[in-house]
Amino acid sequence: MTQLQTGTPLLTASDYRRSAQRLVGSDVWDFIEGGAEDERTLAANLRAFDRVRLRPRVLAGVPDADTTVSLFGTAYATPIGIAPTAYHRLVDAEGEVATARGAGRAGALFVVGMFASRTIEDIAAAASSGLWLQLYWLRRRDVMRDLAERAERSGYGAIMLTVDVPRMGRRWRDMRNGFAIGGDVAAVNIEPAVMAEAHRRDEGGSALARHTAGSFDPSLSWADLAWLRDCTRLPLVLKGILTAEDAALAVAHGADAIVVSNHGGRQLDGAVASLDALAEVADAVGGACPVLFDGGVRRGADALAALALGARMVLLGRPPLWGLAAGGADGVAGVLRTATEELAHAMVLAGRAALPDLDRTALRPTSLAGGDA
Ligand SMILES: Cc1cc2nc3c(=O)[nH]c(=O)nc-3n(C[C@H](O)[C@H](O)[C@H](O)COP(=O)(O)O)c2cc1C
Ligand SMILES: O=C(O)C(=O)c1ccccc1
């Protein structure tokens, strides 16, 4: 059990959340917590897990659960990893370097964001578990190629291309707060000219939204993926797939893995809850490549549900930021270990010894109906 300065034991992700909220400024908190527009998809991501009911098997002879998993030849102690999020130095002076240390202690995958506030190389030096690098598709393809090459040189295990941001979702909280990245926090892996706009606090509006409108390439289509594929020998993972149609296209275009995700409810408000899209996507992929999942995972039983529906690994977006804010690398490790212990506990109580034993028989069929409000 992790116990940080507050003296309160941090037993669950929501304990870390409460602790983090006390320590983070309100505009940064809104940036982390917020979703697009009326935040309906954000809420739906969480609610979808409340509908899940498990089908525990008894007398299964399962004294302990094995949570190990391997992906692209790298072994992880847990199938619960860290989704890419921007600017970790907003909540901790060491930023992504501390996150990498925490992920390493938990034996978890850490997907470093393109908008990381520490260098790709410094993060790699602090890591002891697998790292991947997330990219957005920039108009400046030379910048993307440079980042992919640096990741490969630094030992990253895959490139994750985020495909659900042709433009930034509209986040009323950030727009009302006039939120901008300031002080000494910056996307240090991207040359300043590409980033200049994001760092300028302007009257009203969200500088992030304006910046991404200028630097992201919104005309990207399936045919362009071949260019990125040729830039790197690393596996290419597509993040932000929500339909069977796009899952089939991703496989046809040679994706090495896909991530079912609605970007934590931060892009298209009204989009399907992540969990409700998972069965459809897993069926369409049919084992052709690994399927990963993110969106609303807050406890071990949530991870169990996503794994049972066909995810090989689940990623957490906000909870590691809560851990980082609450307690640096220890907090990150605490969030990941807590969720992993909850998962192992749920597996024992459900009579499933290892991750391959998690399939749809672990879930009540009505849990799968996707009858989202
Ligand atoms: C503060 C914040 C920043 C994010 N930045 C990125 C990013 O730079 N790239 C990306 O692909 N996704 C980004 N995401 C989305 C996450 O990778 C992930 O899809 C989402 O947070 C998962 O949902 P969860 O927060 O409910 O776990 C961000 C999410 C948050 C909350
Ligand atoms: O992707 C996001 O959700 C996000 O908030 C973000 C912000 C700035 C740069 C890149 C991503």
Automatic annotation (TrEMBL):
Cofactor(s) recorded in Swiss-Prot or TrEMBL: FMN
InterPro entries from the UniProt entry: Aldolase_TIM (IPR013785), Alpha-hydoxy_acid_DH_FMN (IPR012133), FMN-dep_DH (IPR000262), FMN_HAD (IPR037396), FMN_hydac_DH_AS (IPR008259)
Top-level taxon: Bacteria
Record has Cytoplasm as a keyword: no
Residues of the FMN hydroxy acid dehydrogenase domain: 5-368
Keyword line: Flavoprotein, FMN, Oxidoreductase
Family: Belongs to the FMN-dependent alpha-hydroxy acid dehydrogenase family.
Protein name per its UniProtKB record: Alpha-hydroxy acid oxidase
Species: Dactylosporangium darangshiense
